[in-house]
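FAQ: What does the model actually see?

It sees only this:
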Amino acid sequence: MNTRFCVVPYHDLHIGHLHIILENWRCAHKSGGKFVLALYDSPCHFMPRGIASAPVSTMQDRYVEDLDWFGIAPDEIVWSSRNAEAHWQANQTLHVPRDTGSVWSVYNAHPPGVPWHTYHPWQTLAVVVDDHEAEIGGFCRGTDLLPQTQLYDYFCHQLGWNPPRQQYLPTICHEDAESKISKRDCGETLRDLRGAGYTARDITQSIAEMMRIYGMAGSTAHSLVIPSGYLTSREVRPLPHDPYWHAKLKVVEGSAEAEQLNIRAAIMASRMSRSVT
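And it is asked to produce this:
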């Protein structure tokens, strides 16, 4: 069974990504399938606002280098933008809006009494088509993406395809944090941990310990928590590897969008200053 890990390639991988990647890699190799690294690169080209990054080819090389260090290099790499024609063909059936700022409700597809959600329809369509083109039979991803399941499956059925098997895994957070580790929040990356002197074994053992604690907690736990004493024996100084991480378009000064970008810029400035002190 082919599995995949899908990521928007604008920031380096972190331990939350690794947790999901390991499960996908194990499932693929246990079943004799391929592990596919799926780069959803379209937002890097046409998003109306967002974060600019290094060229996709550069991010691809960094991801492969990170995964190869753990011994789980991908068997195949897919760029979503290269499936643009297939996306267009699928949309002749679905007729979803191309604008990534639009939302799509599938209220009629929901079971009675189940609250409906809103989604970015084109992104979901693109991922569905990319998975079909790569012959993905199943994948694991974080529980934060669980609300997208219904639209994903709905599009598959509308196109006459069987949805891949899906497993949703708990996200990872720090002991004193309320939300998951995220590349959007400039969390420590795998490169940061490696630069601090941690080995691949140190990091994977920490994930195994998180899973053990999570299993003991049963249904009362919603996230994996980095346990006290793990990945804290060495000082992690974020490396200066984000020179491309900046606002892509001009925004109105004083707007909510400008404030958000200012916060992100301040986070990056803090990381950069700590990396050289």
